[in-house]
Amino acid sequence: KQEVTQIPAALSVPEGENLVLNCSFTDSAIYNLQWFRQDPGKGLTSLLLIQSSQREQTSGRLNASLDKSSGRSTLYIAASQPGDSATYLCAVRPRGTSGSRLTFGEGTQLTVNP
Amino acid sequence: DAEITQSPRHKITETGRQVTLACHQTWNHNNMFWYRQDLGHGLRLIHYSYGVQDTNKGEVSDGYSVSRSNTEDLPLTLESAASSQTSVYFCASSLGGANSPLHFGNGTRLTVT
């Protein structure tokens, strides 16, 4: 059974710092890995999707990498801002599943202090 | 803009009552999903649908049902609400295909007393 782990569970940094969030998964047989952002009381917003054949994806100040063989992904946030404060979740879509059934990690709660 | 609308946003009900949570999407997506989110468990899949008249059980489907009579809606019914079903429920949709991103609604917070 696929398991997804995110460490640390919480992270607090000063504004302007570059930071890395980690995601690990136990089974490398995946279609893709997706990073989401969740604000309090809100749903999840898709940030980046990395296909299994890709090594990284970039969107603005965000860069996500994928090392499928080692079961790891990182989300790099450059020049963090207070508006980046949220919970960040990663999710994998295991091979052999149809539709978009995902297995989620529990998330890293990020606080960026002004 | 296309979106997923969930209603109600908050609901308090009593044990044993039947409850239906609504989900409506304007993405024209084939795939729709219901998840629940709980501390210590993350997001868990309840039911999902790949199209009209299609429904499938997820990993925590006991006590829940769904029906898909059109593309836009996937209501989630709790047959007889239990305190263990107190949670935040999220509806999501995707176009289909191996690499379609998942889009979420804002959730319904359900409390069963």
Number of strands of chain A: 11
Compute the CA-based radius of gyration of chain B. Answer: 13 Å
Which of globular, elongated, flat, extended, rod-shaped describes the shape of chain A?
A: globular
Succession of helices and strands of chain B: EEEEEEEEEEE
Low-confidence stretches of chain B: none
Strand portion of chain A: over 45%
Tell me, rounded to a whole number, the average pLDDT of chain B.
94
Number of helices of chain A: 0
- Largest interface: which pair? A-B, 24 and 25 residues
Summing up helix and strand content along with how strands pair, one would put the structural category of chain B as: mainly beta
**Intertermini distance of chain A:** 41 Å
Number of strands of chain B: 11
Specify the helix fraction band of chain B. Answer: under 10%
- As residue ranges, the low-confidence spans of chain A are none
* Shape category of chain B: globular
Instruction: Supply the number of helical segments of chain B.
Output: 0
| Major sheet details of chain B | 7 strands, mixed
What order do the helices and strands of chain A follow?
EEEEEEEEEEE
Helix content of chain A: under 10%
Q: Report the radius of gyration of chain A as a whole number of Å.
A: 14 Å
Task: Describe the model.
The complex is a heterodimer of chains A (114) and B (113). With 114 residues, chain A is mainly beta. Chain A has strands at residues 4-7, 10-14, 19-25, 30-38, 44-51, 56-59, 62-67, 72-77, 86-94, 103-104, 108-113. In chain A, strands 2, 4, 5, 9, 10 and 11 form a six-stranded mixed beta sheet that branches. In chain A, strands 1-3-8-7-6 form a five-stranded antiparallel beta sheet, with no helix packed on it. In chain A, a hairpin with a 2-residue loop joins strand 6 (56-59) and strand 7 (62-67). The model of chain A has no long low-confidence stretch (mean pLDDT 93). Chain B is an all-beta fold. Helix content of chain B is 0%, strand content 51%. In chain B, strands 2, 4, 5, 6, 9, 10 and 11 form a seven-stranded mixed beta sheet that branches. The N and C termini of chain B lie far apart (37 Å). The model of chain B has no long low-confidence stretch (mean pLDDT 94).
